[in-house]
Write the structure tokens for this entry.
Amino acid sequence: MNIRNKTPLHRLPVVRVLVVQAIVAVSTGVACSLVFGMVAGYSGLLGGLIALLANLYFAFKAFRYFGARSAKAIVQSLWAGEMGKQILAAALFALVFVGVKPLQPAALFVGYLLVLSAGASALLLMKNNPKH
């Protein structure tokens, strides 16, 4: 028996991580724009947004179920979320490379990697009690 999580996504602890990732994406775009120019700025922002949108999709899929009775559904939703996240990121990269001209690929990947690293440090952001 699958038990759906009734908690809205904006009330889950993962939202703090997504907010930090959004801040990192915007600040990367601003920093690249100030240091390297407007093309690098929007390229860095687009890279950050690719990672943020993919992680948002994963969070939406991964936190749908909870409880011991939903163990199988939890594993399946984690797997589906991760696969969807990878496919979405690849599709967004393809869209950006085809549709955005001029583009600075180095800034694009720096923005992407910085937002991913903010997500990887999520355990540091959560501290001991994820409810606060």
Q: What stands out?
A: The first helix runs from residue 14 to 36. Residues 14-119 form one domain. Helices lie at 14-36, 38-62, 71-99, 105-120, 122-126. The two ends are 30 Å apart (CA to CA).
